[in-house]
C-alpha cells in the first residue's frame, strides 16, 4: 500500500472511532431518564402484583389463578388486576386486586363483591396523595 492509501485509511479510522465514542458516551436527556424510570416502576409494580395477588386469592379461595382477564393502571402508582372464575365450579366468580406502589403491597382485594383487604393511605397533607382511582382524598 502506498503512503497516501495508509493516510486515507487512518483518517477514516479516526472518524469512525470518533462516531463510535460519541455514540457510546451520549448522555440521556431528562425526558429519557424519566421515561426509563417510569418503565422500571411499572414493571416492578406488575411483577409484585403478579406475585402477591394470586397468592392472596389462593389463600382466600383455595383456588390458584394464573392470568388476569383485565389489567388497569396509571403506570405510576397502582395496578389493578381482575380475574374471572373459569368454570361454574370455581371458588369465585370475580376477584379484583389493586396493588399500590405507595403502600408497597396490596391495597384492595375484592372477591365476589366482598372486600377482603382495604388499606387506606395516610398522609399529613392528603392533597399530595392520590387514591388508586386517581382522585385526591
Write the layout of secondary structure elements.
Layout: H1 3-24, H2 30-61, E1 70-73, E2 78-84, E3 94-100, E4 105-111, E5 114-118
Antiparallel strand pairs: 1-2, 2-3, 3-4, 4-5
Describe this entry's structure for a reader.
By secondary structure, this protein is α+β, with helices and mostly antiparallel strands. It has one domain (30-128). Helix content is 39%, strand content 22%. The protein has a five-stranded antiparallel beta sheet, with helices on one face. Strand 1 and strand 2 (78-84) form a beta hairpin. The N and C termini lie far apart (78 Å).
Compose a concise summary of this entry.
The chain is of the alpha+beta class and 137 residues long. It has two helices and five strands; from the N terminus they run ααβββββ.
Strand content: 15-25%
In spatial order, strands of the major sheet run 1-2-3-4-5
What does the largest sheet look like? 5 strands, antiparallel
Helix percentage range: 25-40%
Task: Let me know the average pLDDT.
Answer: 85
Q: Keywords for this structure?
A:
137 residues, alpha+beta, five-stranded antiparallel beta sheet, 2 helices, 5 strands, 39% helix, elongated
Amino acid at each position: 500500500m502506498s503512503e497516501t492509501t495508509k493516510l486515507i485509511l487512518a483518517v477514516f479510522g479516526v472518524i469512525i472511532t470518533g462516531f463510535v465514542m460519541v455514540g457510546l458516551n451520549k448522555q440521556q436527556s431528562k425526558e429519557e431518564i424519566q421515561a426509563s424510570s417510569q418503565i422500571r416502576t411499572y414493571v416492578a409494580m406488575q411483577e409484585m402484583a403478579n406475585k402477591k395477588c394470586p397468592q392472596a386469592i389462593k389463600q382466600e379461595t383455595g383456588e390458584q389463578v394464573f392470568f388476569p382477564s383485565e389489567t388497569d393502571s396509571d403506570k405510576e402508582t397502582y395496578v389493578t388486576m381482575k380475574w374471572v372464575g373459569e368454570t361454574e365450579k370455581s371458588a369465585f366468580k370475580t376477584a379484583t386486586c389493586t396493588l399500590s406502589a405507595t403502600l408497597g403491597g396490596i391495597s384492595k382485594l375484592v372477591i365476589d363483591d366482598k372486600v377482603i383487604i382495604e388499606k387506606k393511605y395516610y398522609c399529613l397533607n392528603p392533597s399530595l396523595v392520590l387514591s388508586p382511582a386517581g382522585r385526591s382524598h
